[in-house]
Write a structure and sequence with these properties.
The protein is of the alpha/beta class. Helix content is 34%, strand content 12%. The chain has one domain: NAD(P)-binding Rossmann-like Domain (Rossmann fold), CATH 3.40.50. The chain has a three-stranded parallel β-sheet with strand order 3-4-5, with helices on one face. Strands 1-2 form a two-stranded antiparallel sheet.
Length: 119
């Protein structure tokens, strides 16, 4: 989760807590100033993750997402997901040209809850 925050009042904190409670492995990616989020050690970049990355969940402003998209491609991620309120034509292009699944302007926790409820 790029932009995961250790601050409980931040949306990324709540979404990360929800996903962890659902049994997902979530690795917080923060460039600086964070040792852990919800007990999970932070990494500075996606390149530091030494296991397959299914989905890169992004909580960053739109102007930062193309760089995250490039990082996701380089890391071999399967999908790029820009959270609710975040859209980027350039990020979409980068992800789709590399064959990544792409979602924008949607919350992973809300979509997951809906899918679970709808079965």
């Amino acid at each position: 989760m790029v932009g995961a925050s250790p601050k409980p009042d931040r949306p990324s904190h709540g979404v990360m807590r929800y996903l962890l409670a659902q049994g997902y492995r979530v690795i917080p990616v923060r460039p600086e100033g964070c040792d852990e989020v919800l007990g999970v050690p932070c990494v500075r970049t996606l390149a530091e993750i030494d296991e397959p990355i299914d989905l890169v969940d992004v909580f960053r402003r739109p102007e930062f997402t193309p760089d995250v998209a490039r990082e996701a491609v380089a890391a071999g991620a399967g999908a790029l997901w820009l959270q609710l309120g975040i859209t980027s034509d350039e990020s979409r292009r980068i992800a789709e040209e590399a064959g990544l699944d792409y979602v924008e302007d949607a919350c992973t926790a809300v979509v997951h809850r809906t899918e679970v409820q709808d079965g």
